[in-house]
Every structure is written in structure tokens, then in C-alpha cells.
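Progress narrative, work stream C.
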Amino acid sequence: MSELISIITPVYKAGRFIEETFESVLAQTYAEWEWILVDDCSPDDTAEVIRRLIDDGNDPRIRLIELSENGGAAHARNVGLDAASGRYVAFLDADDRWLPDRLKTCIEYAGERDAGFVFTAYEFGDDQANGTGRIVHVPETLEYKKALSRTVIFTSTTLFDTERIPIELIHMPEVPSEDTATWWQILRAGYVACGADVVTCIYRRPSGSLSSNKVEAVRRIWNLYRRVEKLGMAASIFNLAGWACRATRRRL
């Protein structure tokens, strides 16, 4: 019998992207999933669009949670986690697009590797989530110390087995770059992330997005080193240098 995967998506002002995201989830070749979308009090028509898509599809696997106050992506994901009922958890950001075998690839790889934390390669996409040919390859395994200078784990490619990774470790701290902080807290606890070097996701990168703001990205990663991981100055500088080199290579 197939295991249930709980897909968790925080949504905020995602009305113009979410229909494509719906299509990519519904196209999955692995069918044992539930999808929990958490609207983070969007001021636009995001919730309305999602409700329409759910009604049109009449798929009981999909549900929407609407928050009354904006709490940020980490809070929204944590609300989704608390509502999840699957053994496995997969994160999907509202503007990304999964390839059809994304869930199948991850759950099979988790079984092959006896892994509680799996992630995959991905491809950068343009504003329309069309692949650009720029692929981020991933290592076979990633441990805590190496992960500090390699932010290669992309949120929309992850899969967690909650029978192997305690759910409290998957809950995201409410800090900038909460996803990276989460991977580190899991790895710091002694778990190893297993990478499947196959593309399963298109990472949409609209111009002007936060992730494209290099100064802000450096500020966020530095904050994680110093305030979250409590690294010393020398260790922070060392890891930042490695992070910057690898981040630059990924975008060339």
C-alpha cells in the first residue's frame, strides 16, 4: 500500500501563479497525496482563485486553510504541518512548478536510501516557470558542516519521512531564510540529507524577487550564521565565502 504524502504550500499574493501550480500537482504520477494550501491573509484574490480551482476540480485531496492574520511563510508552513496527516511531508512554494514524477522520484529514492530527508536537483525558470536550462545539481549526501556553506537544498524539492525525522524538527523557525534554517536544524540534530541528482522542479525566479536581491541574500545568510547557528566570526566568514562562491557558480 502506498504511503500518504502531505504537500504543504504557503500562499500569499499568488493568484497569478497558482493555477499552474495546481496543474503540476494534479499531474503527479504518484497519486497518494493530500495538498494543504495555507493562505497567509493575502490582500488580493488568491484565496478566491484557490477556492474556485478546488470547486472546479472537486478533488477531496485538496484543502485550503485561510489565516485571519499575516504571519509569514514559516508560520503558514507550520500551520500546514500541524494539519497534515501523511507519513511523508513535501513542501511546494506557490510559484514553483513540479515535474510529473517529482513525488514518485522522491519517495522511491527515500526507500532505496532508507532516508528520512530527501532533496533533488532543480532547474531555474523564467517569469513563466519555463525552464532556462540552468540546472542545480546536488550531492549524494549532505551533512551539517558542509550544508553551512552549500545552500543547495531547494524547498520545493524536499521530502521528509516523519517516522524518521521528528515533526518538531521540520517545523520552521520564524526567521528570514526559514527554509535554510530548517534544513540546518535537522542536520545539526545528526540526520543526513540524501540528494537525488535528477530535476524534479522548476524554480520560478521573477525579476525583482527577494532571492534575486544579492545584498539581502547575504544579510539573511549572515544572520543565520551569527544569530541562529551562533557561529563565531571566523567560522561565519569562512562559511559565507564558500556560500558566495557556490551561489555565484549556480547562477552562471
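Work stream C, second folded protein:
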Amino acid sequence: MRRIDIDSISPREREALVAIAEAVRTAGGRALMVGGSVRDLLLGSPVKDVDIEVFGVEPDRLRAIVGGRFPYDECGASFGVLKLKHVDIDVSLPRRESKSGSGHRAFSVSADPFLSVREASSRRDFTVNAMYYDPLADAFEDPWNGAADLERRVLRHVSGKFGEDPLRVLRGMQFAARFGLDAAPETVAVCRGMTPEGLACERLFEEWSKFLLKGRDMTRGMRFLRDTGWVRYYPELERLIGCEQAPEWHPEGDVWNHTCCCLDAFAAKRGLVDDDGENIVVGLAVLCHDFGKPAVSVYDRVKKRITAKGHDEAGVEPTLSFLRRLTNEERLLREVPPLVRLHMRPFSMWRGKSGDSAVRRLAAQVVRIDRLIRVATADDEGRPPFPPQPEHLQWLAEAAERLRVADSAPKPLLMGRDLIAMGFKPSPLFGKWLSECYEAQLDGKFGDREGAIAFFRGLASGADLQYRPLF
């Protein structure tokens, strides 16, 4: 019997788990931990949420058992998942599922508390997620040999039911990256025969987000996407494969390999920023940063090497195309492309000895310079075995801190309400005037609100501003 230590479960969840298991046993059933929580226990990782599957208890009886001890919300048709409030625990019954149409949600589902553990687990995706643990009996059940696969770092699908849900291919991508797994050949073969089949973009984005926010061995995840053939559904990525680069600058190989190395570098330092919103913006920018290279890469006969001039600008459109198939979130569509377009700018500014105004303008374009530095750092570190060359990034970080624009764009010191307070009638020309003042602010012609007002008053005497005081 494999021993499992449940001390990595937080005390609150552990207490609730045991209470539910004891109550279910009293009712003649068994409450087993299942899925990712068991996998994480075997890995010795902290368990953030617990999934419990209950055998041998009818749905109404289970509702009464759980509801008598914990408030819960029920999600799903028929007997759904009981999501406990105030603790990270989900309780469910074994289910029978059958494909009823196309798409991720096209399943007929019915609860059956009298299924065997093996039959119940056959609907799960991968063997490493199909293991069970009885916390009262200290008994481990592994009908599909998931523990052996986990030890060998193999990602293997459980059964023929795997092919009914195409989203599982992208789940395989993020699991490969998160746990350093290589897909079994038979799993790759099954995935190659699957298609996205009209999956909603929000479900796709959920898996890509987990890949970027939780993945550690990003190259393995990308390899899974390539080997299963699903990279063809992301042509912006597929075009990177075989796009050659100058070996004296990129000894790691083609643009695909470079992108994988950059993602690994990003993941290695991702934990330094405890903000999923920031990490997803930066992660997407790292993934997309060289999307422009296939369109502009040529062999320069004079320099006798491959060049990719303008790939930063050329990367904007394919980045938007890629993102729009994954998300409708305006913030991402607005904030990721500038990081792609300007990922080379830190080096050119450092080499050109740019001044403070250029740094302020850069901050205004990318929203946060610290994001751009993270993207450029991953780009710099994604060229093994070359050592990092961070001098230009250190220079930019120091300048941004000194100018107080590291984590935000310079805020305009003069606003429309200030013009009204000075006696100007609201006008379509406000935008032009305020833009002139903001440009002057970025140039360092003033640094506070009083200076902004004084600068504007100087402009106000010009006929081009069409000065129209109210009094």
C-alpha cells in the first residue's frame, strides 16, 4: 500500500474532509479524495483544493449529509458538484457520461453512486488524475497505474473516453508543462485525431492561462502542442517552426526553439511577481514576441547571415490574431501588442544613450516599463548557451525608477477640468491642447501641476489655441 501524508492539506480543509468521510461511512458509503489533490499529495506539493467523490450514497442522502455540516452551492444539472462554502472542497458522485453532440459541453451526464472505482475513474482524462485516497482507511487506489506514470513522468490518457472531450488536448499541454511530463505515444496518437470542435474561446483561454501561470517546464508543454499536431490550430506559432535565425546570435536554433527557451526563462522568474494579471500579460507577450519573424526573415548576402529587420512591428498583427481567438478581454488586446512591438526598444535606447524623455515616452506606450523589462529579460535569457547580457535592462530599470515610471505610465498633469477652471469652454480642441501639453510633459518641460498650468498659459496666447475665456 502506498503511504500518503495528508498534512500538506490545510488544517481547515483536512478537518472538513475527515468530517465528511466519517459521516458518509456512517451512512454506509465511502468518501474518497480523487484527482489533482491526490496527485499533489504524491508529489509532496501543497494541496490548495480537495475533490471528494462519494460512493454508495444516494444523491438526496448525500445532500443532507453535506448540508447538515457545511453550507454549499450545487453546480450542474442532475446531481452536480457540491461546492462547499468557506473551505476549498468539492463533493460529487460518480457519474456516467456519454457524448451527445459536438463541443466541450455536449455530454449526457447521470449520477450513479454504485459505480466501481475503476468504472468511475474511466471518464477522467489522464492516469495521474485518476487516483483515489481513502483518508479514513489510509488506502490508496490506483486503477490505471497513475502513480507509476507520475514517477516515470509519463502523461497517459485513461481510456477511450478521452477522445470525447477535445479540451483535454490543451489540458495535456498545461499538465506537461506544470509537472514535467512527456506524453505516451498512444496518447499523442489519440490527440492527433482530435480537433477543437467548436470549443468556446474562454475554455481555450483557461487552459492557456494555466500553462502560462503554472507551467514550469514550458518547453515540454510546447512540445506536446507540436507533437499532437494541435499547433496547426495556432498558425502564428506553427510558422515559428523551422524559421531559421543567425546562429551567432541564436545558437539555440529556430524561432520555435527560441520561444520555448524564452518561456522557460519567464517561468523561472514568474514567482517573483505575485500577480496573475501581470503574469498573464507578460507571459502572452513572451509567447508572441517573435511572431513577426517568419514574415521578415531573409538571408542578407552582404552580412552573410539571416536578419529579421522589423520583426517587432511585424509581430503586432499576428499577435492580435492569436489573442482574438482566445479572448475578448480588451485589456489583453490593448496591453500585450505594445510589448511585442517594443520588445527590442530597451536595447536600442541603451545603445543610443537615450534621455529621460525617451524613457517617459516608452512608459506611456507600454503602460508599465517593468513589464517590458520582464519580456526583454526572457528574450535575452532565451538564447542558451549564451550567458545573459542584462546591462541595457539594468540601465532602463534604473532610469524608470528614478523617473517614477517603472510601474505606470506618466499621468497627465493637466486635465480637461483644469482648462475649464481656467475659463475655457469645453471644446473638441481640448484633445489637441492636452496632447500638446502631455508631449511637453514627456519632454520634461515641467514636472508638476503648477508647471503644467504655466506652460499652458504660455501657449494660450497663441492664435492656434483659439483662446475663449468664459469671463
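The longest helix spans residues 11-26. No further action is required on this item.
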